[in-house]
Amino acid sequence: MDLLNTLVDKGLRRQLPTREEALAVLATSDDELLDVVAAAGKVRRQWFGRRVKLNYLVNLKSGLCPEDCSYCSQRLGSKAEILKYTWLKPDDASKAAAAGVAGGAKRVCLVASGRGPTDKDVDRVSETIAAIKEQNEGVEVCACLGLLSDGQAGRLREAGADAYNHNLNTSEATYGDICTTHDFSDRVSTVQQAQAAGMSACSGLIAGMGESDGDLVDVVFALRELDPDSVPVNFLIPFEGTPLAKEWNLTPQRALRILAMVRFVCPDIEVRLAGGREVHLRSLQPLALHLVNSIFLGDYLTSEGQAGKDDLAMITDAGFEVEGTDTTTLPEHRRQGCGDGPCGSEDAGEPAATVPAPSDDTRRDLVSVRRRGAGTDLPPNA
Question: Which listed residue, of 57, 124, 151, 305, carries a Cα 20 to 30 Å from 378's Cα?
Fold first, then answer.
């Protein structure tokens, strides 16, 4: 396909595709899927080889959130029967993190529900960061605490936070459809505050919320403009008790096309396969490793993932290797800034937006609420 040859050539040169090309990736047929994966895989290997970075989530505070994000099981008014607990003590959080590190995780992601942290919360998380780093030499720590107030990003950086995560989730045009308690610009501002404070920015999206192809391309191009170091791609987990519980719009094939599009738009950025991979990719998860260079190990915030040992076996069986703490994830040119690389984008216009047809099969058996690890007396999955 001329399209794929063009996209590979651009990806190897760090040149961004046009919007038309990105949309065309999403419009490819299932017959073309393996060609799409192979093409995006060439770009992935150029910048990241066959390495897979492992990340581990620790949910510091679960549920009880005042925000109304429609996709979230922790939202205001959620009837999802998830674990609910207030802040973990630093030692307990550190023990939970140690399980992930022992399983091979290079980065620990500290997440707390809520609109954003108070200054006291920042102090509490700072103590947790110190405890984790003291016990786990070389580990990266990413904080994900919601919207930041002035000065909080700097304090987290001083406490040792290497990165800050705050996802854009969906396009600016449709953001109001999934959340009314804050807006798209609030999320952009928080990512920019993290970058200004010297933290590595981590910001991604959620696919499968009923968005159009145009919305997906919009949010990925918006992410590329922000220039984060890592882009997590989540696939909606339709929790019972949330407004999006009936949104089963993804097939494994569409999920792979979305990941390929993200890779072409973000050729040299860490693309992370995040929440919902087991639910929507299912047996095609190993193919996704040819597109992404980073995954979460084990469980997520409020849902269970596949067993950590199965993640490690999948990586090995697919011919990839776990990235060690002695290896820097990003290619050298990104660590030094954009330089002469193409940080801008080309825009060749946009075809009419398309909405994916809902899936006939709702595999609710694949959504398993987390009942172990942080906030419980049971050992974590790592």
Answer: 124
